[in-house]
Backbone:
């Protein structure tokens, strides 16, 4: 495999990404988008680097991308679920597809990256498959209001009341998940879709929604798998990291056209001796 | 259709006319394998020294990356070539499976430093780093006979630092949704003894690495450094921290022209930790951006000071 780090122009700024190209013609391109917590293109503990190299072992190219103002991208960082970097991701996707000469596209993103993926996937006609990790349709930045913060602290003090109050709060907010759920349905109408979700209150009624969508959907695969690690934050669980790497690799290998150049059972990770 | 490698390679660099810099990805050798670095260059006249940035350890490599980038772009904008890179075990390095150690950081830094003259066209080398990266920068500067070293919030005692790493997980869980289930330091030390590693917020800290960190002592490691050294304290209070004063004394003992400056900021406790926080309604931002700006201003001011800044503590 070969790796090409690039800066893709976006207005006055440049978005950095590492494009990993397998030996031989790629089966397609997967865009890897980290979440909005400051993780760079390799992600924390190099998780996206491992996914990119594992995909290359399966004949699939990838572009792992930095948000504007994060990692090696230029610019000033500002994350908002209302203004996701969809155009930045699209610019990198189009650049990479042109350079690689592929017309098969997929995307994996976590948290804010998963929400961004929902915006990008619908605009790329070559989309075939996607993985949304910890989409959490209701999540957003924590409230800065002192009254809200004080109330949360009070509830946290009580072992039983706290979790009950949180469940009730997020259940009441579910009606606000409509836009994200519509986007999930729209993506699944044109693409195979895997959701990797932790079993937390923020996932809300996503399981029920996916069940309903599966019954209506006849053309494209739709699956939801529970991430290990319980209510652990992000990728703080080592087991969750391993699960994510394994399932993302398997999913794109199964849903992209063509077959991996290596026999099944080969190690998914590559540690040394990468050809450049 | 073949891969258009020429198109990909043509995008390995960019110019930013507003800052007066260019940045280019470069392939480097480190620790017997290869890794990627970013070379930042001024678009105008170049000045010595060239700077090598040493990143910090474990998750701090991510949490201080924006500090490293801020140093790189500020120094390049001031005319200096600057190189930042990933040690083996991190980011885009060839080997992301083998756990990095303090000694592997130093090994990789020394190997990359050897490649600096070829990349920058300059024999005069300086090093800068934050937290554990600052300690590596100091030791590498000593070994290489560098002209300058800048240490932002340096780790002085490895055993204290190792305990801080464990404590970071305890605090993270105490601030989480189920504080009554938070792990304790005792639990983590027991897990380290029985299982050979402990999970620190998603970073597997192996016992051998933990023990090597515990043996690390920057004061003992410094034996001779005759260049200029700037120690930067990052804190809420301007009062000099005892550990950094001891480091300053030690640097002077071994022959350095050393000074201490302080960047005070309300977000100082976030330095080296997760630092993307709500800054407005529905908006997350980098709360340590002001610290990074302050650090860069201190370094540029210090570089402009021809007297060497003796006795600023």
Residues:
């Amino acid at each position: 495999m070969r790796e090409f780090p690039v800066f893709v122009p976006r207005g006055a700024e440049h978005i950095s990404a590492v494009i990993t190209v397998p030996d031989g013609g790629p089966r397609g391109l997967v865009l890897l988008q980290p979440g909005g917590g400051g993780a760079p293109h390799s992600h924390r503990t190099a998780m996206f680097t491992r996914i990119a190299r594992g995909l290359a072992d399966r004949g699939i190219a990838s572009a792992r991308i930095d948000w504007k103002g994060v990692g090696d991208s230029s610019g000033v960082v500002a994350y908002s679920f209302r203004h996701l970097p969809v155009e930045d991701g699209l610019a990198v996707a189009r650049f990479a597809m042109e350079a690689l000469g592929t017309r098969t596209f997929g995307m994996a993103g976590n948290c804010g990256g998963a929400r961004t993926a929902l915006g990008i996937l619908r605009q790329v006609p070559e989309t075939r498959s996607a993985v949304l990790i910890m989409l959490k349709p209701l999540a957003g930045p924590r409230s800065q209001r002192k009254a809200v913060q004080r109330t949360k602290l009070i509830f946290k003090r009580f072992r039983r009341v706290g979790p009950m109050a949180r469940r009730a709060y997020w259940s009441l907010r579910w009606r606000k998940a409509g836009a994200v759920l519509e986007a999930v349905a729209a993506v699944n109408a044109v693409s195979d879709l895997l959701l990797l979700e932790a079993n937390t209150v923020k996932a809300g009624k996503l399981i029920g929604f996916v069940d309903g969508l599966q019954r209506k959907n006849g053309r494209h695969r739709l699956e939801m798998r529970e991430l290990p690690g319980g209510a652990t934050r992000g990728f703080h669980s080592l087991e969750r990291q391993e699960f994510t790497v394994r399932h993302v690799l398997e999913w794109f290998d199964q849903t992209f056209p063509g077959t991996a150049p290596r026999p099944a059972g080969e190690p998914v990770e590559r540690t040394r001796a990468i050809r450049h | 259709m073949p891969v258009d490698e020429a198109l990909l390679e043509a995008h390995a660099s960019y110019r930013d006319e507003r800052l007066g810099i260019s940045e280019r990805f470069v392939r480097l050798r480190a620790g017997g394998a290869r890794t990627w670095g970013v070379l930042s260059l001024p678009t105008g006249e170049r000045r010595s020294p060239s700077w090598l940035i040493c990143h910090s350890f474990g998750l701090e490599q991510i949490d201080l990356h924006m500090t490293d980038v801020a140093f790189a772009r500020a120094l390049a904008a001031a005319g200096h070539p600057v190189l930042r890179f990933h040690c083996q075990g991190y980011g885009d390095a060839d080997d992301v499976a083998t756990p990095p150690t303090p000694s592997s950081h130093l090994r990789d830094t020394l190997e990359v430093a050897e490649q600096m003259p070829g990349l920058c066209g300059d024999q005069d080398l300086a090093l800068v780093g934050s937290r554990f990266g600052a300690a590596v920068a100091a030791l590498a500067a000593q070994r290489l006979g560098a002209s300058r070293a800048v240490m932002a919030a340096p780790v002085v005692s490895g055993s204290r630092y190792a305990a801080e790493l464990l404590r970071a997980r305890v605090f993270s869980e105490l601030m989480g949704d189920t504080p009554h289930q938070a792990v304790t330091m005792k639990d983590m030390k027991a897990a380290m003894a029985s299982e050979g590693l402990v999970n620190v917020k998603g970073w597997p800290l192996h016992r051998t690495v933990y023990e090597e960190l515990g043996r690390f002592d920057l004061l003992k490691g410094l034996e001779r450094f005759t260049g200029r050294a700037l120690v930067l304290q990052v804190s809420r209070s301007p009062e000099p921290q005892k550990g950094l004063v001891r480091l300053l004394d030690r640097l002077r003992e071994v022959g350095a022209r050393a000074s201490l400056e302080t960047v005070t900021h309300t977000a100082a406790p976030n330095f080296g930790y997760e630092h993307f926080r709500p800054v407005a309604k529905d908006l997350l931002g980098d709360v340590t951006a002001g610290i990074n700006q302050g650090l860069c201003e201190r370094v540029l001011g210090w570089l402009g000071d021809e007297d060497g800044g003796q006795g600023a503590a």
User: Anything to note?
Assistant: Confidence is low (pLDDT under 50) at residues 267-276 of chain A. Chain A touches chain B through 68 residues (CB under 8 Å). The domain at 2-142+177-255 of chain A is CATH 3.40.50.1820 (Rossmann fold).
